[in-house]
Every structure is written in structure tokens, then in C-alpha cells.
Amino acid sequence: MKQGDTGQDAAMRVVFVQALNKALAQDARLAVVTADISAAAFDESRERFPDRVVNVGIREQAMIGVAGGLALTGMRPVVHSYAPFLVERPYEQIKLDLGHQDVGAVLVSIGGSYDDPAWGRTHQSPADVTLIDSLPGWTVHVPGHPAEVEPLLEQALSGDGLVYLRLSTRVNRTPFGPSDGFTVVRSGSRGVVLAVGPILDQVLAAVSGVDVTVLYASTIRPFDHAGLLAAARSAVPNIVLVEPYLRGTSAHEVSLALADVPHRLLALGVDRDEEKRAYGTAPDHDRLHGLDPAGIARAVNAFLG
Amino acid sequence: METRLAGLFRRMTGDEKHEWAAASTLDVLWVLYDRVLDVSPERPDDPDRDRFLLSKGHGPMAFYAVLAAKGFIDADVLDRWTEFGSPLGQHPDRTLVPGAEIGSGSLGHGMALGVGTAFGLRAQGRTARVVVLVGDGELDEGSNHEAIAVAGRHNLDRLTVVVIDNRSSSHGWPGGIADRFAVEGWRAVTVDGRDHEALYEALTIEPDGRPTVVVAEVGSGE
Known about the structure:
The structure holds two protein chains of two kinds.
Chain A: H1 11-26, E1 30-34, H2 43-48, E2 53-55, H3 60-72, E3 76-82, H4 83-88, H5 91-100, E4 105-110, H6 128-133, E5 138-141, H7 149-158, E6 162-166, E7 183-186, E8 192-196, H8 200-206, E9 213-217, E10 219-221, H9 225-233, E11 238-246, H10 251-257, E12 264-270, H11 282-288, H12 293-304
Parallel strand pairs in A: 1-2, 1-3, 3-4, 4-6, 5-6, 8-9, 8-11, 11-12
Antiparallel strand pairs in A: 5-10, 7-9
Helix pairs in contact in A: 1-7, 3-5, 8-12, 9-10
Chain B: H1 2-10, H2 19-23, H3 26-36, E1 51-54, H4 61-69, H5 110-123, E2 130-135, H6 142-153, E3 159-165, H7 177-182, E4 187-192, H8 196-203, E5 212-217
Parallel strand pairs in B: 1-2, 2-3, 3-5, 4-5
Helix pairs in contact in B: 1-4, 3-4, 3-8, 5-6
């Protein structure tokens, strides 16, 4: 049992593992690098392709560096771990061994903000998207349903760039198909609510009686400036941004999208003012951060007046 | 006492995947807290207290059980571990758990923190001991080896690292774990991690100018 391998039910990770094992057999350019977490999921592929499926042990810095080396040889590395150990711990390697070397990779995380808060702060990573967003050139996918994972992974594997695929144990009831931009879930007149990934169901419950447009994004970088602009022009430009990670991570993108449109912005997400020193369950932490339906509804209603 | 300790340990359920990891540390922790460390719940902030750093924060049930047995925490809290509002989670937080010197759970942090603690205590003229508990799998993390080198070069002889060797490292340690420390100037002792007298003897040998590693072999649990 390794760190981050919390044993939780992770339907998105199951889909990811199955799809990647299948792809490894079909594309000799693909490689996988792990640091013990989920390594066993690739045992069979490792036996068949020992030089393309590498488990480095509990060595996350080396995990990213090895991926960078693979990419320098023209391979397409996929790196997978629990979010804090994929993004936070080897952050400098991500910056230098991938970005600065001008090579690409697909980083796939699980666990995210507080999927399993019984594990405490060490296994929470609400700033992962924020950190990746501070580096240039990254595509960021935040699927909200297991059925959304494989199309996004296929898209990532077929390219050469830097991709962060953020899996979660939190899922919406209904998947949305691949889209180049934001999906319009419903239309309204008093404002525009943008929900990212697995927070959509909670947003829909929160605004069920409110006359607002709801947009959904499973890809948040690049940010669909045109999609938000069009929605803002079709309603009162009261923008509510709801992200299942650090609050306000995409606020600067909203500003860019609506640079020429006078607007108001309410950004909701994981609280960045203080560390929540609590265990419990993900719904407990939703309430702590005001991301449960009631908390979102309170904030939205106060914002719209 | 061991029977009561085992009873306390079993009050925490729901982390069966880490049960072996936790159980593998129980004997070492008990010997440390019962016979070796100069610590007390009555003087948690005594600057001259020994410091115990649980770097191997996975499966802290044994740690919590020992803290309860020694009066640092109320035993009734064990029943609520991992619950919302409980101070006890699956990885300890030093701000929530009386007696916990560090928050841990992400591997490979405790040894460098222990080296810094040993430096700080020595700089203040104190002779308190610093004991860091790590796992053999945790030694995969490169940060440990940076700390091992630093401690060996700086004669931190009040620093002891206990390695619980439950053979969980993916690649193993050819030549043995003890030699990895010895080559950096550490005194290295390997003992049966279930033998309380052997553990006590290894954990109380007189300082000789070198940091000490005690490799506690406990088997793989399989």
C-alpha cells in the first residue's frame, strides 16, 4: 500500500487505466511512468513493454524527469499519480524537465482537491490546477463523468503538447460529449454560471429556481473566451465562476474574455484564506468551503440580489 | 500493557489496507514511549523534551494507540478517528494531535525535519534526542538521502533514525539498508523489530559522535 493509493472507488481511474493499457498496445510512441501509485494497474503492459512502462518507486521527482527524458526521445509519456504527488511535489521538474525542455507529456491525477479528506492535508491538492495554470502552454481537462474521460485521454495521447487530465472520484449524473468550448446546459437572463467538471450537479441543484444561464466545462484550459462572451451578451453580465479547486483560479480568464464588457464576477471554489484542519468526507468539506448546493445557492442569491 | 495496547489499536477500524503498515511499527513505538524517550503529556512544550518524528505517517493507528496508552490523547477519541471534527486522521496533523511533533503522510519529509531539529537543539545547547521513524519503502524518496548525507557530515549524534523494514520498497536495497547509512558516516544497527530488549538496547547506546540508524526488521507481513 503506497501513499495516495487510498483504495477509494474511482470510476474515472478505472476508465483511464483500461483506455491507456489498450492504447499502449496500439501505439509504440506511448509510455507510462508511475511512482508506485497505480503501478499495478499497468503490470501486464509493463511485462509486454518494459522499456515503455516504467515504475520508478516512490520517487516523484524522478517520475517527471524520466518522463521528460522519454519525451526528449520522441515518446509520448503519460504520468499518473495522486494529485499532490503528481503536481505539488515535483513542481520544479514539471516546470523544467517538461516545459523548459520544450517537450510534452500527459499528466493524469486522481484525488484532486479533497476527494477523500479522511487522509488529511497531505493528500489534498486544491491548488493543482492553479499551479499548472501558472506555467505556459498547458491544456487542462477536468472531466465530470467517467464517460468523459476516454475521449479527453485520446485527444491528449494523439498530440504532442502539455496536458493535465484531472480525474476525480466525484462525478455528475450525466456526461457531456467532447466539445471545443463550453457547453450551454440551460439558458437564462439574470446571469451566467460557469461550472467546471464534477461540480456541475451541485451547481444545477443550487440554481434550480434561478433564471440564469449555466455553462459546463470539462476543458478549462484553453479557456473558451468566445463561449463566455456570447453567453454574457445574452444575459445580464453577472458572472458566477464555480470551480472544484482553488477559488478564483480562472478569474483572470474571465477578465480577459470580458475585457470589453462591463461585468460583475463572483468566484466560488476551495477556500484559499485558511487551511481547513478537518477530516471527514468530501460532502463535509463541500459544506466547509460553501460548495454544497445550499452554500452555492446562498452565494448566488446574494450576488444576484 | 501489551494487551491494552492491542485493544487500543483495534479501536481504529476502516483502514485495513494500512493495518500491516501500522502494526509493523507498534513494537518500536511502544519501546520508544515506554522506556526510551524523555517525553510526557504533562510537559508537551518542554524545550528539553526528546522529539519523536513520525515520518512514516501512513497507518498511524499504532502511534495513536501508544499516545493514548501514555496519556497524550483520550482513548475515547480513537473511536472517532477520521470522522469530521476528530483530531485523528489517517495522517497525523501536529496542530491537532497532542504529542505529534510533525504532520506527516507525504513520504520523505521527516528525516530532513529531524536533521533540522537536531541542528536547532544543538545550537541551543540542549542534549535532547531526536528520533525519526521511517519505512523502508519511504526511503525510495530522494529527499531522505539528502538528509542522510547532511546528518553524517555534521556529526548529529543526538539523531536516531529507525527504519521499519517491512520490505515494501519496490526495488529493495541491495547491500542492505544499514550500509546506505554507514557509507555516509552513520552508526548502523540491525535488530529484530519485534524484540523489545534488542530494540531497547539499540535505541539507548551511548552517543559516539555519529548519528545512528536502527534498522528494525519486521518481515513483509505476507
